[in-house]
# Entry
Amino acid sequence: MDKITRRSFTAGAAALLAAGTVAPAATDTPDTIRFGAFGAGFGQPYGVATFGVAQAKDFIANEFKDTPVKLEWTYLAGTGPAVNEGIANGRIDFAQYGALPNVIGRANGLPTRVLLNYGPTTIFGAARKGLPIHSIKDLKGRKVTFQKGTILHWAFLRALQANGLSAKDLTVVDLKTADQLAALAAGSVDASIGSSSVLSLREKGIVDIFYTSKDIGLKATGFGGILVTDQFREKYPDATRRVVTGLLKAVAWIGDEANRDEALRIWSKSGTPYEALQEEFHGQSLKEAFNPLVDEFLLAQFQDVVDFSKSEKLIRSDIDVKEWVLAAPIHEALASLKLEKFWTPRHADGSPKA
Amino acid sequence: MNVRSVAVDRVVDRFPAVRRIWTARAVGHRLLPLAIPLIVLIAWQCAASLRLLPVQILPPPLLVATTAIDLIRGGEIVDGLRVSLWRIGIGFAIGAGSGLVLGALLGLSRTVEAYCGLTFRLLAQIPSLGWLPILLLIFGLDETLKFVLIAKASFVPTVIATSESVKQIPAPFREVARVLQLPARSYLRRLVLPATIPGIFSGLRTALSHAWIALIVVEMLAATEGVGYTMVWGRTLFQIDIVIVGMVVIGLIGLAMDTGLARIEQRLQHWEARP
# Structure
């Protein structure tokens, strides 16, 4: 190998510096767009909700057909908190994850904006087989496990509230999904709160399901935003527009009941069994459930999560939700796709605006 | 051998008072160990000021200090430490205590070695955390799980150090003891203890550091309180300053425990060396 002389070193360093300063200005399409989302906890490289379908059906890839842009999809086993870390160290441009970690990231200064609603996550309550737990009210004095700091945390405490209870009426045990199974099996906890993935515990005969957030409705159903980083949005406005268009096409596709079965099959690649997903969305209009609009309802829901996070001391600084959401891209995309009338905006309480 | 080194020490250090004079040079020498932490602190402050990493990933030292004060005032640190120290106290007492017994037996008796040596060495190969999945299923999340894991982590190094130290008592010493027909008590006190204490104590220090590691890891994976859990919670809340405070606390407590053991070891050696 050649010896590195001082001159060649200086030349190389100068070239590097020049490349570093010139490259960003040279093009306004990115080489790669990095999408990051929560995983279903099974370590599969596939996701659920809007990202899952947008990836599987190439809705975003098709928007970039005339460009060399590459798309990267990452589904993190560490769920929301891991997505926040990914955004912080610049490895994620667009993120789909729960509202509570959305809020925690924002409150800690992550430069993000909310573009649209990714969809619902139905919450299930599973009690160890044989215990006399048949409803949320029966949890009084029991040991209950769920992963704190995720959207389950908010949704479950709101469900307790709707039943006249608070977290003080029971013992909360903060565990990741895989450890919850062990804790249930060993009898260390009485019940666990989770997404449809807990349904597979019922198939194994370990638990009985005593609660679903459908009992209460949207006010206790998991949700979250699809976020873009300021850095990406400001540098690549055109790519941002294309991504939002692709995402909306995906949500519209999900909303077509003819695609229900295919959508469930796509989501089941994440590791959550097809049957569990079927049960999760049974009796629900997917078009209504996956309403992506940045409407009064979404703002009210985010505000509720912010208030919750403050009262639970999960965040140290306040968030202005109105300033955080960015409705312009979705409105532009709705207009260009002629989908303005496809979804009905909702009032703050979730009822449709006539 | 350590008897001699202590004696030599005494001969050289005939004027202990002279040593205590605080010359500038002596003070400088005492401050030397702080040089690297200081450099790290300055580098950290520079990196934070220059925004080499996002503030969410590398918060400035001052924020971490403020958080530390908040956590101490709010009682989170004290509560966490109380739980963690309780766990390590029980676990280490069980693990090191039984380790001393088995180690001594392995070192003194060929029969015990023949029966247990292989099994012990085999089990010692499985890292403490390799036991976690199955122990979690057996004991659930209760304190027993932490005690068992910490006990296991401190048991292995203690056994190895103790049995090796006992085996390495020089053969001529043993022979002399046999010729003198020392009673068992004197044999232990005059020969086995002085000859083995340095080895056993370095084993105990290793055991304590293993126990501390096992404790923090099990608290990070399967606990709802303790210093390790506080760190995981800090990560969940995306407040890395809490995580860093946890790291500092773990480091300082670990150092304090290690220093404590080293002091006890010194005391014991002096006691044994007393004519």
Summary: Chain A has 16 helices and ten strands.
